[in-house]
Amino acid sequence: MKNPNTLLADIAQLPALKNTLALIARFLLALIFILAGWGKISAYAATEGYMQAMGVPGGLLPLVILLELGGGLALLLGFQTRLLSVLFAVFCVVTGFIFHSGADQINQMMMLKNISMAGGFIALMLLGAGRFSIDRS
Length: 137
What we know:
The protein is an all-alpha fold. It has one domain (15-127). It is 77% helix and 0% strand. It has six helices and no strands. The protein has helices at 4-12, 15-42, 44-53, 61-77, 81-99, 105-127. α4 (61-77) packs across α5 (81-99) and α5 (81-99) runs antiparallel to α6 (105-127). The longest helix has 28 residues, at 15-42. The chain is globular.
């Protein structure tokens, strides 16, 4: 009988499953950024004020929206997946420290969420976009 880890590794290497899982991973990681980017457009002034209150120049908001909404859509489509994965991993860690470094439990959980997402992006950078993508890698 095969070791469960070996069995799962063999199953995950089946081309159709591997490519489907890569698509699902891209969707799950991109979704939060697409929604957040859209939300920042919808509440532009409030988001800009919050950024400034946290010591981040409000002039960076268009770049944040571009990364979150534009990068999220590109990630979903599998365009420049490895590059975007690195950018999102760094973004998650940096924004985690800027916006969620408080000692209260909610901020600690939000920080862990950001760190966990960075880990997911690192894994996606290693995995690639899969066949169901513009990259086809």
